[in-house]
Write a structure and sequence with these properties.
9 helices; 8 strands; 31% helix; 17% strand
């Protein structure tokens, strides 16, 4: 006997996802198709993280056509591997549509390297040989202090796209500084894009090595950092990622693992990307794919993207 046409079909239970979504905090809009992104399986190694950032910024400026770049810890991480120096790669990348650069560094050797870089880029030209008008400023000293001089409408106009790299050395960046960066743009402008590096490869050892607890209190920005000692590296990264959305109000945030080159199974950093731009997640996935392709084929083991516990 055929079922009546007036009878409603039984409700179907949606399938349970096998993996956590890459950008779980983005609320889907009822009037547009929900976008999905390919699961990230191949590793980015520490020497390739600068290429990862460079590729993302290239896509970023192709959409915005302009932009400002803030680097809180802009000196070379390793003077033996200047090819992986983020500030140098960003300044020399094409197209040269980023026009405002604010480079901060506290170490004397890092400052000298930045001055040399600035001199080399003082006559920067585009692909057609035309001189590029840029504003490049170096800020010596503590980034947590210097950020007050950078976050003003004269240096970062409200309507200009802005990107901030925080490749800190463990506990250098205070959470109050991150909060100031996130709150600087006024609605309806998108917040400043953030790339926040969390050094989980040594973080548990670093906790016991800090002599003054106020350093950790400033870095974490709220009570409870003591509980991090008993958490896994991924749990810490996911907690920090969630703070960018729930506390700082970013539309999306994701944590990308950065692996050690000599041991592909060891995660040294999580690069936490926070953005208000609706295209940012797709751009970051594209940048990851480009950075992975830069590796030799026999050096690309398939490693799973960490799951949310």
């Amino acid at each position: 006997m055929k079922a009546s046409r007036d009878k409603a079909p039984p409700a179907r239970t949606p399938p349970i996802p096998l993996t956590a979504p890459l950008f779980p905090e983005i609320e889907p809009c009822a009037f547009r198709k929900i976008r999905t992104y390919k699961r990230i399986d191949n590793p980015i190694w520490t020497e390739n993280k600068a290429q990862f950032i460079r590729h993302y910024l290239r896509y970023f400026v192709q959409i915005t056509k302009h932009g400002a770049y803030i680097d809180g810890f802009a000196g070379p991480q390793s003077f033996d591997h200047l090819e992986a120096w983020c500030a140098a790669l960003v300044l020399t990348s094409e197209p040269k549509w980023l026009r405002r650069f604010y480079l901060c560094e506290i170490s004397p050797t890092g400052l000298e390297a930045l001055k040399t870089l600035l001199a080399a880029e003082s006559d920067a030209r585009d692909r057609k040989g035309r001189k590029v008008k840029r504003r490049i400023e170096i800020f010596p000293g503590d980034f947590n202090v210097n950020i007050e001089s950078i976050l003003c409408d004269e240096k970062i106009p409200q309507k200009e796209a802005a990107f901030c790299l925080l490749d800190q050395r463990t506990f250098e960046c205070d959470w109050a500084t991150v909060r100031k960066i996130a709150a600087f743009k006024r609605p309806p402008q998108n917040k400043i894009e953030l790339l926040y590096f969390l050094g989980v490869g040594w973080i548990h050892r670093a906790f016991s090595g800090v002599k003054h607890e106020e350093t950790l209190s400033r870095w974490w920005g709220q009570p409870g950092w003591e509980g991090l000692k008993d958490m896994s590296s991924w749990s810490i990264a996911d907690l920090v990622r969630s703070r960018f959305v729930n506390e700082l109000g970013y539309r999306s945030a994701a944590a990308y693992p950065i692996f050690e080159s000599n041991d592909g199974n060891r995660i040294m950093y999580y690069m936490i990307h926070a953005s208000d731009h609706q295209e940012a997640p797709a751009l970051m996935v594209r940048a990851h794919a480009r950075a992975v392709r830069a590796l030799a084929p026999n050096l690309q083991p398939s490693l799973p993207y960490p799951e949310t516990p």
